[in-house]
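Lab notebook, bench 4. Still working through the backlog of constructs that have no structural model yet. Next entry is a single chain of 257 residues. Request: give me the structure tokens for it.
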Amino acid sequence: MLYVLESVKPAVVKQRLVDMPQSLDEAYQKLIDRIVDKETAFQILSWISHARRPLKVDELLEAIAIEIGTPEMDETNLIKPQDIGHACCGIVILEGSNDTVRFVHDTVKDFLPRANIPNEDKKMILTRTEISLACLTYLNFDVFDTIHFDKQFVLQRMRIRKFGKYASQFWALHTKCEAEKSANVQAATLRLLQSENKKTSMLQMEAYAHSRLDSIEFTKNKTALHILAEKGLAIICSLFLFEHQDADKECFLFNTD
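Model written out:
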């Protein structure tokens, strides 16, 4: 309605009243059609759709800045918080009370799969596999190759790398089943879990995310196989076992204990 009344010309207001959408789907489609920066907007919409909990503004800003397969965050990819709403033309709003980002209404998530989007633009919509790869790319950043068991060090790093809490908590849920079939996802998962330092950093952040007491304590000596089994990543678990079966046999044959 504000869009209708923002013109001072009666003829324009009258025409806009005639053109007003008659249904929610039509209203959402008009907003989609007004999007200019489609790549940014569709990334934002994709993350909000796939997210396992409401994303904090800073988490979303980092999530859409991730370049798959890179060793660190390119700070020049970060947009400003106010750009989120502008890019999505009102489909997304920032909740000031809890600093999260959400759709203007729950029905937006149901609408998006049936939105009329040109095929060339649909390529910009992130798949579940791409969401998984983004989380894994983030957890594989070089910054997490340095570990420290001092709580303040870990918390300070999480204040800088704000998406770490979400990525460590939900990477496996985004990976399970569909995304697991991707060779790139398999490689990124094994790269993370076979790096002792990055695995430890991930477990510290995950522990903090689940703790009510801001603890970074986690069960020590968890192997890659333990974590894969715990997360229910059956496909990658089978791949890991297959790749290590010869090594396991060798350890058994030469075990003198």
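Notes after review: Residues 1-8, 248-257 have pLDDT under 50 and may be disordered. Residues 26 and 228 are 44 Å apart (CA to CA). Flag for follow-up if needed.
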